[in-house]
Fold:
Amino acid sequence: MINPFSILFRYLFLEMLPPFFINMAFFSFIFLMKQILDITDMIVNHNVGIGPVCLMLIYTMPYFLQYVIPMSVMMAVLLALLRMSSDNEIMALKAGGVSIYRLLPPVLAFSLVGTLLTGCMTIAGVPMGAHRFKTLLFEVATANLNVSLKERTFNDSFKDVMIYVNRIDPQSGHLQQVLIEDSRTGGATNTVVARTGELFGEPEKMLYQLRLFDGMISQVDPVKQSSYTIHFKTYDIRLDLKGAMSAVNISKKRIDEMMLKELRAYLQCQQKKGSGYRRALIKYHRKFSIPLACLAMGLLAVPLGIQNRHSKKSFGIGLGLFFFLFYYILLSVGTTMGENGYYPPVVGMWMPNAVLGGFAIFLLSRATREKSVDFFWFGTLISGVVRRLAKQ
Structure:
């Protein structure tokens, strides 16, 4: 039995910690980069407090951490073993009679920790964060409706009212080139087009008023088969956010906001051949398949990291990034194909793990026989597989 407190176990385990945290910080920053513009816009142009913005960031973190943690685990194992290989430590271990398989216990233990952390994200963090983010965003929108109005985007926050704004002045908050479709007047539909507009009201009462300037109203009544157009200099539209809130229950959870127990109950209520059932089943299996990808990625990093010391580090790191991208593509394809019913959602969610695990075992057996793992060999392998498939 392997002693978990052996020198080799502790040495390798501790060697993987620094690159793990560095990669966590780096990849988290990459994921946050796309949100910086939105955050800046909310603080500078819409006067949203730093507190709510920080909470929004915290609520979105579990979503990208479910991908960042497995990738950081893989890169940590890779970098630790590549460092040991370049310093001839792997060669010294082999010369001392230490099998490559003796490196697996600390790697698997480290990957298991990553699995548990990722599981906390997928099972609890992601649904809780998504639900609280939606609730907080709604609260911010009620306090400052300009936050929910986006340029060149159709906004349907209000029941039976669609608002489109071509441009929002960041200084004054004035709306330019406004299009509104108002279906609140029975069977008739009012289409309002205005050159400019202003939004003001009473946020504490959830009552807003949109004042439009220099525009026209076109009403079409299919029941009476009539239509007319009116030009105006000033026109006010009342927007009742409280009524919209009662029409759309903010507390009602979407599939990605459901905990395991709620998701199981939802699956039992759905028809097994329906698209809603397939989407929910995919979300259910993703909560377990993504965490377990840490084990497959950690195991795969071992043969990539213990390659010959004369090989460039870029070979191992490049292959590591390639396999992670390959995993993400397989996961995305599996999600799409599973939702559309081309094959069972279970297959789509667990196939990426099986493929990466198979590659890990194959490359590990190749590494134990002192055969190199590089881009040239990998390209030859892929081309050979493609030729065999073409012949069949």
The CA atoms of residues 65 and 121 lie 7 Å apart. The longest helix spans residues 104-143.
